[in-house]
Amino acid sequence: MLSGATRLAAVIGHPVAHSLSPDIHNAAFAATGLDWAYLAFDVAPGDTRAALDAVRALGLGGLSVTMPHKEAVARLVDRCSPDAEALAAVNCVVPGADGELVGENTDGPGLLDALSADHGFTPEGRRCLVVGAGGAARAVVRALAGAGAREVLVVNRTPERAAAALALAGPAGRAAPVEAAADVDLVVNATPVGMDTPGTPLPGVRFSAGQLVVDLVYHPAETPLLAGAAADGATAANGLGMLVHQAARAFTRWTGVAAPVAAMAAAAARGLEARSSAAH
User: Fold this and answer.
1) At what angle do helices 240-255 and 107-119 cross, to 10 degrees?
2) pTM over 0.70
3) Which is higher by pLDDT, 278 or 43?
């Protein structure tokens, strides 16, 4: 029940009505008994600074950031964590008691948490391949390299964008052709292919048992890439785990309380099912 003491957290984006973040975080607050509530605010691209001013003025306990505001928030907060600074992108703002706003990026660590918790996979000493070179891909590349991957291969059509992503991997990084995906331990698709365009980002690639193939797309739950990987005997997983675990890290940063990951995952699954049903 809301009260005068209820703390508010929120997500800003444009559009944002589809966001699963309110489902995930409100379930976490309920599971932990915290007197918090979480809302979604549609904020136009030109209003990012005003939204951060509102965080200060209203005393929000936490802010999630989704497209198209991640880069602008990174420029506007008082300081950034090392990950957010390296990526020039923020997905989580942590307000301090003194009004300072700290920008963080929990996307890459969230993926690592999901790989470990859901699949028992750790990147250390492994060969990993990332498809794409946008914001999500760069976060994944940096996280995998930081976790000790032996190689972080990047597949991308534009050499310049691939080079920018590879710079985050240090000596472990190198550009690779599509075919390299058949001979690595982990494949992560960080492109929208399979969600808003048909087909797979790795046409013609055959996978095998022992490989883990992750598509950061989670709607639809099974993309053509994941269906093909599963048919070939590989382990296939969508991006819902990363979404939940990046939110869990944000929850703990805001509240100081261990995140109830199981409750958050269940809420995410229910929310996704409800949105999928409404779309049909």
Assistant:
1) 120
2) yes
3) 43
